[in-house]
Structure formats: structure tokens, C-alpha cells
Design a protein that fits this description.
Two copies of one chain form a homodimer. Chain A has 15 helices and 29 strands. With about 500 residues, chain A is α/β, with parallel strands linked by helices.
């Protein structure tokens, strides 16, 4: 088909059977500053009733952005919003008010203590959907979780939206959780207290995905952005558990040159990393890679030359933030780290990971979401992802806490199924998953093994067994496996109001 | 709907009105090396007749990968492939044989001299589609250009497909052209001569998008990977044109603190950058950013503190490759740089760019694709993108070359429309686009301006005017504006066989 275009040419517009439009004019492209206020940014993004707003959690307990955003929504009179955060902290207690007044009526994202307690007593009209970090990324990638406005906290952004968490007074480490949100959400609003000269030298989020940059006074409280969990426990029982973890890794033959290990920020996990660092020195071994969260402990192992690469998705302390400002290493966003729909993930090569639990059971199922009274108090985080990606997934916990058995016949909620759990290291001994005959064979003679049933017996004997919960026919939430299937339900406990 | 899942739980699978599958089992994820041979990699990617294979051009005239890939396809007996490269070089002459024997029957991508000459005489059954770098990225992003197998040359990759062009004996700079290909192609095959220890410390292409890593002896010839175009011209006429460009920028008030300029690797463009660097020194000005291609000249301006940021998409010489290995700066992939479908691009803030032309006309239209004899000999590159993104787009050319007028009544092919061209700087004077009254006003009194029609008259007088071409009703190719519309057609010239 021949047509005259605005350049004055009569052009054939059908090329290889497809008809394109004729050229209709060229104009200069320029840019406008995207900087605005939070409330105007939300308005310009078209915020309205029923929308889904997503957030990352890397400002941790110092985060002001979630509360500020819903305050702005309240001011705009917008109702029934869905909140799709990657995690929550005590600082988000005002979310209870946003729920009470109808600003928020639905949550798909990790829940924390105070808000979790409230929802456990007062279920939302829509059950809370709990996903792992990798599972959440996949849900956004596949469209299962549709985000209308991605609200992305940044410790620095230029006026065009090139944004980072690496620099600035509220620095928290690379923005690892929000790239997929920025690519899939209809609108993207960067929120920062630090508009820097263009071009921002760090750019985990790039202007090509950003609609507006909301400038606020403060995105967070620096002292609470840094996790309180990076202090190594001084509880002798926990230290012993941590030490036993390293003995188990060693007996399993996994402490070897080129090993890849996952580092976390929990007390026992951190202690285990400390002992692992010492073991690397003693045995003169050089690990390949530390993945996961960065802490001073890991940076020091790296500086000592005992691990060649730090391949991290979160940064937990100020020391580590300062460190990566000068040596960025290999930041891995959560998709790279754990997206189960991808063609390859960082965690698939993990030799060892040490994780926690609120409960474990004799099928090696792990609960990290609910307490034994049935309240939904924690998120899944990377628990599922790293458990499935590792050769040796170690769960650490005491056999019982006060009057509560921790090792049970059956966990209250399955967060991570026993199929991918290899060992449970407790204060009363180490149980190995009987399916891991290779592992049992390998450590035989070097490590004392107890049966998980024996641990359960100890727990029940010391505590009188678990409290019996009765449930109402009302869903509080559900846990999903990272492939999107329903792993477990969390029902409302009778009498918990 | 309640169902029992394989974790033994009876779960409600209908959550907020959507029914999900019940959990059906968890397994450990591990990884397998993706390393294979080129021929097996193509087989495993399911190569078959009629598929589209994409390539980047950053190995330039040293590239072995395009030829090796089609040799493998020939060996596999696969026919009628589409080639979607980002550019071609003389080294790709064997493509003519692949066309003759039916391995390749369609090209959507920049064409170079030798192959272009052949196709101009022997049109393919499908017209060649010429797009700018940004336009190509957008065509892949929107699905207009569907890639079956992205073949991505890398100077280093680990066994899982984390790949780079920054390090290794065939280093060529960050892989900037292929991220969108890797995300949109059905299959992704990294081709490297350098399988490095996991994890590769540079990762422009990440394992999550990579299916296989083909290991070959050599991906290219290092001395030809580095462009021959980074030598500054010593032709006094061209040097004068370059100098006049800088005077024009200066008169336009664009040589100022915070300026953003585009650097290229062509002879005059490079000389203009040299003079610009000197002008920055003389006037004690500090530019904000140099975008585009990196050369020693730009690195030296950066080292001298005359430009704060190097924000580059290509690296043209060995000096610059060595430099970025230690100071990566801000690499900008082509989407970030120039994707017209994005929410913001690096080039939208460009103050100045200096570009070349094979022809210009009195409507300020520019031809970079065909010669005056009608042969299609060059690609568009970033010409359209930077012209439209810049405040001042300067085209440099002589008014005539031997017996050919370069300034014409009407260009043979429109590559970039006159609407986004601001100035034409020639050996016979500077013409400004009459639509740019603001610019004309600004430079008045400081710069001598001639009319484009006068330049055309000089050209016609000295050469006797352009040769008259007659065309057959047979399309050789078309140029597209970066929004996907048909800008111009390239028809077969009568008698050119």
C-alpha cells in the first residue's frame, strides 16, 4: 500500500506482508523533572479506590514511606487499597488504623508482629497471601500479583528517577526488591529525601521505568534502617547450636574450597557464620561466594580473603553500606537471586544455608509464619527459596521454649515443606531428614544424630505437649509455595478476638 | 474449594475468588553447567528453518560470531533464517554466501558496505528493515521484531551464563545491545571464548535469561574488535569543520557548566570532541556528562576533570576498555540510552551531538544509509535517536565529494528527517534549520550563516548536479523512524545488477 508520509515521500508501507503506519512527523524529545510531592505523585499516578500499591522493606524498622503513602491516600479519601509489601516491621503499626478506617482492605505480602496479631484477631475481607521473596517476584512477573502503583523508597534519586539505596543519609543498600515491580506496575513512584544531581551514579531503578519522583523530608530513621539483628547472640545455648551447625557442614564435606554459603542476619545464623569464618581460617579454605544479606561479619571474612565474592541482595548494617559504596561487589536483585520462573538463580548453587523456625515437625516441615497460638506473626522471606536452592539446609531451633514444644508432630502452618529441609540442629541434638541417606551416610561416626521423633518426645515431655487450637471457618491468610500453589491455610483461632 | 495437597494438608485453594493449584511437592533446585558447543547450543535451542537469530555488533570488524553461527546453521542444513543484527562490518562478507545458498533470506538490522552492495544488486525476498538503535530495542520490546534465538557474543561468561564484554582477551566493553533480546527471545545462547569461574564479576547478561553457553575457540580478532575510527582526522578541511562545530556550540550558549554532550567515534566527530575538550579548558568549564561511545579522548577529558560522568553505551578503543575495567562509571544499555517507548532516556537531556551524513538536503533531511548511486551501504545507528534527543544536532559533511553533490535538493534516502536537524556544518559554511529561529537569533553576529540552498547551488555548480537514478519496482529495504513508522523506501536502481 503506497501512501505519502509527512516527510513528503510516497512510501510502500506494506513490508513483508505487514502494513505499518507511514511516518507522521518527528519532534525533539526532551525531559521534564519528575520531582513532585508524595500526594501529587499519587494523584498523578491516578490513585483510586481498590488499587494495589507495592513497597519494598529495605528501610526496615526505620521506614517512613509505607505510613506516609497511606496517610496521603487517606487525605485523598481513597479506600480499599491492596498493600503488596515485601516485608513489614513494628514501625508499620499505623497500618492497623488504615485497615480500621478502610484505607487498606487487602494485603499480599509479608506480615509482621503487631499488624499480624491484629489481622489474626480481625481477618481482612481478603485472606493475606504470604509468598517467599522469589515467589513474590515470580507472581509479579507472571501477572498473578498485579501492581497498579509501585512505590519505591530510594535514599537518592535524580530528578528523572534514576534511583538507589546505596548512598545518602538514609542509605540501606541496593534496591533489590523492586525492579520487577518497576517493570510491571502501571505507574512507578520513586520516593526519596535526597534528590541528587543528574545522573545519579548508582541506579538500581532506572528512569525508563519511573513516572514520578516524590520528594519527602525523610524516608526513614537512619538508626532503625539498620537492622538490630546483626548482633551475634550471647546466649550459650544458641552459640552451641551455631557451633554444631558448622560441625555438621564440616562432617558433610561442604566446608571446602569454592563453597557457596548463604548468610543471614538472625542471631544463630550470624553466630554460625562467625564460626564458619573461623573454620575457614583453621582449615585454610577459601570459599567462592557469600550470598544473601551483607553484614560486617561477612565483609570481614571477605576482607580476610576467605571468600572471593560477596553476592548480596540486602545490606544489614552501616559498616557494610559504607563498604559497598566503595566496592559494589556483585549486587543480585531478588529476581537474579531467587526467581523460580527464571533460567537460573544465584541460590541454585548454594552449598549451605542456616535458617530459623517458630516450629518444626516430624515430617521436617517448618513453620516460620505462625506461633503455636495460631497468630500470624512473621513472613516467609527467603526461607523457601534458599531451602530449595541449597545442598544442605539447616534449621536451628530449641526443642521447646518455656511451655511450648517447638518440635511437633505437625506444625501449625507449613511455611517450607520437609522435602527441602535436610537437618534440624537443636539444643538437644541434630536430626537429619531420613530421605537424605547420602548425608546420613557421610556424617556417620563424626556427628551424633538423634531422631526427630525423639526430639519431639523430649519437647512434649517437658511441656506437656502443644496447646490444642480450634479454628473458625474464616481464613486469615495462606502460604504459597514459590510456584504459586497453595501450601497451607491460616484459619482464625476460636477465642482469639 | 478444599483439596488435600501433597504436604498432607486439606487446603482451601480459592483465595479472594481465584482458585489456585494445591501444593504438589517441593524439590531441591540445583544447576547444571550450560556450557556446550556452538552447534549443539543451536540444536538445543531448537534452531529450524525460518527462525530469527539476533546478534550485537560490539566485536565490530573483529567479529567471528555471526559467521560461525551461520556456518553451524549451514552444517545443520537449516534454511531461510532471518538475521537481526545491530550492525555489520566488512568481516561479515561471508553473509553473501549464506544468502546465495539460502541459509539467510531476510535481514532486519543495520547493513554494511559489502553485504549492502550485494543486496542492493540482488534484493532479498523480504526488504531489509533499517532501524535506529533505539528503534530496534523498541521493536523487540513491543514484539514487532520477534527473535527466536538471541546469539550473544561475550568476552567472558561463567558456566551458568552470567556474561560480559568488559574482561577477557576479546573484551569490547559492556554488552549494551542485547539485554532486551535476552528478555524477549525464546532462547538465549551466549557465545564465548572465555568461560570464567562462577560468579562472573561483570554481568551485563545474567543467567536468569540464558539457556546455553557455547564455548568457541575465538569470538573475534582483538585488533579488529577495536575500532579503526578512533583516529582523529588529519584532513585540514575536516579539522576546520570540527572547529566550526565547536564555535557554533559556543555561540549557541551550550558550552556551559553542566552540559551533556554525545561523543562518537567518527573522524570529524572525534576532532570536534578534541576541540570541545580544549574549549572546556580555555573557558574553565566543567561538563556534566559525556554519553554515547567511549574513546581515549573522552576518558582523558574525564580524567582532566572537565566532565563529571561518563555515561556510555559502547567502548571503542583498548585504552577505554582497560579504563572501565577499573572504573566502570555508568554503563547505559541501549534501552536506557535510547528506547523511545520508555519513560525516560539518557539522550533526552543531550545538549549537543555531532553526526555525519552521506547526503543532506535543503529540507535538512539526512541520508546515512545510501550513496548517491542508490546503493544501501550503511546503517542508521544512533543517528535518529541522538538527533531527536539533542538541543543542538549538528551534521557535518563537505558540500560535495569529487563529482557528487552532498548537499542536494532531495536526499536519495531519508534516514533522519529534517525536523530534528538543527545545523549543517560544511567546508563552505554553516546552514541553520530556518525552523530554529531561537538558534538563529542566538548565534547572530557571532557565526556566519549561509543558506542551505546556497550550499546546494555550490554543490550543483561544482559537480554538474546529482546523477539521475531510475528505479525498478523492487524494494531493497526501508528506513523506519524509531516509532515504527515507514520513513522511506530503498528501491532497486535500474542497471545496478
Amino acid at each position: 500500500m503506497k501512501e505519502k508520509n509527512t516527510a513528503g515521500r510516497i512510501v510502500e508501507t506494506t513490508i513483508s506482508g505487514i502494513t505499518y503506519k507511514p511516518f507522521s512527523g518527528a519532534k525533539k524529545h526532551s525531559y521534564k523533572s519528575k520531582v513532585t510531592t508524595l500526594i501529587d505523585g499519587l494523584k498523578k499516578c491516578g490513585l483510586r479506590d481498590g488499587m494495589c500499591l507495592s513497597f519494598h522493606h529495605q528501610l526496615r524498622n526505620g521506614d517512613f514511606v509505607i505510613n506516609q503513602t497511606f496517610e496521603a491516600a487517606r487525605e485523598l479519601g481513597v479506600k480499599n487499597l491492596m498493600m503488596a509489601q515485601t516485608a513489614m516491621f513494628p514501625v508499620h503499626e499505623p497500618v492497623i488504623d488504615f485497615i480500621k478506617e478502610g484505607t487498606i482492605n487487602r494485603i499480599e505480602g509479608s506480615i509482621n508482629g503487631i499488624v499480624g496479631d491484629y489481622i489474626s484477631r480481625n481477618p481482612l475481607p481478603y485472606p493475606v497471601v504470604l509468598r517467599s521473596h522469589g515467589g513474590r517476584w515470580a507472581a509479579i512477573r507472571t501477572g498473578e500479583l498485579k501492581v497498579d502503583i509501585a512505590v519505591i523508597a530510594a535514599s537518592a534519586s535524580d530528578e528523572r528517577g534514576n534511583a538507589t539505596g546505596v548512598i545518602g543519609k538514609s542509605a540501606f543498600g541496593p534496591i533489590s526488591y523492586s525492579q520487577e515491580d518497576s517493570m510491571k506496575a502501571d505507574k512507578v513512584l520513586v520516593v526519596t529525601d535526597n534528590v541528587v544531581e543528574y545522573p545519579n551514579k548508582f541506579q538500581e531503578i532506572r528512569e525508563r521505568y519511573v513516572d514520578y519522583v516524590a520528594q519527602v523530608d525523610k524516608i526513614g530513621d537512619a538508626k532503625n534502617i539498620m537492622s538490630g539483628t546483626t548482633k551475634i547472640t550471647d546466649d550459650p545455648m544458641k552459640l552451641q547450636i551455631a557451633y554444631d551447625c558448622v560441625d555438621l557442614m564440616d562432617a558433610a564435606g561442604l566446608i571446602k574450597n569454592g563453597m557457596v554459603f548463604q548468610s543471614g542476619a538472625g542471631g544463630i545464623s550470624l553466630a554460625a557464620m562467625k564460626y564458619l569464618g573461623e573454620r575457614l581460617e583453621e582449615k585454610d579454605i577459601i570459599a567462592s561466594t557469600a550470598t544473601g544479606g551483607l553484614t560486617q561479619l561477612i565483609v570481614d571474612i571477605y576482607k580476610a580473603g576467605r571468600v572471593k565474592n560477596i553476592y548480596y541482595s540486602q545490606v544489614f548494617d552501616e559498616y557494610s553500606v559504607r563498604f559497598i559504596q566503595n566496592d559494589i561487589g556483585i549486587p543480585a536483585d531478588i529476581g537474579h537471586y531467587a526467581d523460580p520462573t527464571s533460567k537460573g538463580r544465584t541460590i541454585d548453587g548454594l552449598d549451605i544455608v542456616v535458617l530459623g523456625a517458630t516450629e518444626v515437625d516430624t515430617s521436617f516441615n517448618v513453620n516460620v509464619n505462625t506461633h503455636s497460638d495460631g497468630r500470624m506473626l512473621h513472613g516467609i522471606g527467603g526461607h523457601q527459596d534458599t531451602a530449595a536452592g541449597s545442598s544442605l539446609c539447616i534449621i536451628t531451633c530449641p526443642v521447646y521454649r518455656k511451655t511450648n514444644p517447638i518440635v511437633l508432630e505437625s506444625v501449625t502452618t507449613i511455611s517450607t515443606p520437609g522435602d527441602v529441609i535436610d537437618a534440624i540442629v537443636t539444643d538437644q541434638g541434630i536430626a537429619l531428614n531420613p530421605k537424605r541417606t547420602d548425608l546420613i551416610e557421610k556424617v556417620k561416626g563424626n556427628i551424633d544424630i538423634v531422631s526427630i521423633k525423639d526430639l519431639k518426645e523430649i519437647a512434649y515431655k517437658q511441656t506437656g505437649g502443644p496447646q490444642k487450637l480450634e479454628f473458625e471457618d474464616k481464613l486469615v491468610g495462606c502460604t504459597k509455595w514459590f510456584d504459586g500453589t497453595i501450601l497451607d491455610n491460616i484459619w482464625k483461632v476460636k477465642g482469639l478476638d
